[in-house]
Amino acid sequence: MILDKYEMVFWDFDGVIKESVSVKTDAFEELFKTYGDIVRNKVKNHHIENAGMSRFNKIPLYLKWSGKEPTTVKVDEMCSQFSKIVKNKVISSDWVPGVEPFLKKNKKKFKFIIVSATPQDELLDICQLINIDDCFFKIFGSPTSKSSAIKESMLENGISPKKCLMIGDASADIHAAKENNIDFIFRRHQFNQNLNIDPDCLVIHDFNNK
User: How confident is the model at residue 154 (pLDDT cuts 50, 70, 90)?
Assistant: First the structure.
């Protein structure tokens, strides 16, 4: 088994556990669809091109584009709506093939940890609702960065980088692994076909027979 030499395994969520990479794009489109196609398409394109930018910074900007004053009340309201849309879409999205039984089968063998850009409370709710929260030793969401979560986990548990692995599907995951000198497995799917990765990096498409 490929993971046998590791003690701690870090997981991204969208695109690695659930087929939910496009969920936030879909949610932004839904949130701003009443403002017309021009605004909706502008929002969609900006979100895709600025994947690392927080929703809390995007929504005030998108409200301005929509001709609305981004007051604290309005921004909070839109963020709350966005969170509900995302949560429902993630829960209803497909599992990455094989990942659910893989997690449940190996949760006592490894320290599984989620490191995601999704807000912490939202991520915890999602994991509880899809019944995988007990598979993870710890779950990190924003505002904690992926790199900081990995570093903190290794230090707190006294585990060396050689015993740690990151499984991800985006450049942010690759960078977080490199910053902490841990091994990385890349999950390839339809939304990251054009992302260039190290030729020595192990690539998987699912978790069946892995």
Answer: very high
